[in-house]
Task: inverse folding
């Protein structure tokens, strides 16, 4: 299937609507076995088409939040258990990809430092300085962070390795909404931990400039440890 702006927009609409239904279940304190209002009523109330509403309900059904009985309606399941199971499955897949990405990136970093060019070091230093300044203002420089890590991997000089790791980054980012949505629901403020990784990016580059492989890897490991501190909060 072709992936277009239209496809992306529809997918986002379904996800937003499924979140709205899930929120409705919580706000109305619906219990397992309770029936949701009919499609016609919800579609009219929320000003969406019934086909769009059905897609959103199907998404929740796949997560184990509701079950649809033909001719009877949509019923709440033990959605807490179902949603937790979905989150744990997402976390398992996410962590497996993250582990592979981390091992490969660390390998690229270790082997690139002795031969990395001054121009590449300047590029990384400029990015690290900018990211550190932005993070200090309480803003997550996500795209710049991706560019930084991509540049580290590219500096090793293996294009296939670069493509592989960048593909993994794109894959595990698809779990962001599920994982960070879970943290927000549980009240865990993960954002300060994310922001605290950026000074280590700058320190890592300083070590790279000194061709200090051991110290640069130590800074990289500190970044990974903070990431894992966040992911380890899934209960």
Result:
């Amino acid at each position: 299937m072709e992936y277009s702006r239209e496809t992306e927009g529809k997918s986002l609409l379904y996800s937003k609507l499924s979140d709205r239904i899930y929120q409705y279940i919580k706000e109305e304190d619906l219990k397992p076995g309770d029936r949701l209002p009919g499609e016609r009523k919800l579609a009219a109330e929320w000003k969406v088409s019934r086909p769009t509403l059905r897609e959103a309900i199907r998404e929740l059904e796949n997560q184990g939040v509701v079950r649809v009985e033909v001719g009877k309606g949509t019923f709440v399941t033990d959605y807490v258990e179902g949603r937790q199971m979905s989150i744990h499955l997402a976390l398992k897949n996410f962590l497996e990809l993250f582990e592979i990405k981390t091992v490969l990136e660390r390998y690229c970093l270790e082997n690139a430092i002795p031969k990395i060019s001054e121009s590449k070091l300047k590029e990384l230093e400029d990015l690290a300085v900018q990211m550190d300044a932005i993070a200090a203002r309480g803003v997550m420089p996500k795209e710049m962070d991706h560019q930084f890590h991509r540049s580290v991997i590219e500096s090793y000089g293996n294009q296939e390795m670069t493509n592989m790791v960048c593909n993994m980054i794109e894959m595990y980012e698809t779990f962001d909404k599920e994982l960070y949505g879970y943290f927000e629901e549980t009240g865990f403020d993960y954002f300060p931990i994310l922001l605290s990784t950026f000074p280590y990016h700058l320190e890592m580059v300083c070590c790279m400039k000194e061709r200090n492989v051991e110290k640069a890897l130590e800074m990289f490991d500190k970044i990974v440890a903070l990431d894992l501190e966040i992911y380890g909060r899934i209960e």
Observations:
- The two ends are 36 Å apart (CA to CA).
